[in-house]
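Field notebook, page 148. I keep forgetting to write these up properly, so this time I am using the form the group agreed on. The chain and the ligand, zinc ion, are recorded exactly as supplied. Prediction of the bound pose follows.
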Amino acid sequence: MMISAQQAGDRLGISKRRVLQLIKLKRLKATKVGNQYTIHEEDLKHILKRNESRVLTYVEVMEKLNDLHGMSDIVKKHLVCSMVGHSKLVVADRKAYYCARCGTAMFDVLLDAEKVAHLVQIRDGKLTASNLQGCKWQDTLMVDFELD
Ligand SMILES: [Zn+2]
């Protein structure tokens, strides 16, 4: 289905002006009909995907929280956990798992085999499991290093 630049903007939650900019930058395909651009609805998905896949790194999140003056790092970490839940990226100990963000012990996960399967373990600062795909942005924002 073909839609107008205004409709595309509404879908993407951006202005018509920004849509025209994206067309000019060749990030969004469009066809000019008369003096109006029409956009293939299907092509919006590429833009949507790009926006969705933008994940804040742990460092970026902490930088944003730095605007909250007088708050210690550990309080900031607990604040993030209270908003998005504990990280699925866990620091594994011999007997326990800890949230890689705030350090809270997560003993309950050991009782739930299915949950454990979806955890991504970190040992010595390295990811050791290959199940990162199962993580959501809440979890992946913990990643402050590049992954292959
Ligand atoms: Zn936590």
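OBSERVATIONS:
- The first helix runs from residue 5 to 12.
- The pocket of zinc ion is lined by residues 81, 86-87, 99, 101-102, 104 (CB under 6 Å).
FOLLOW-UP: compare against the apo run.
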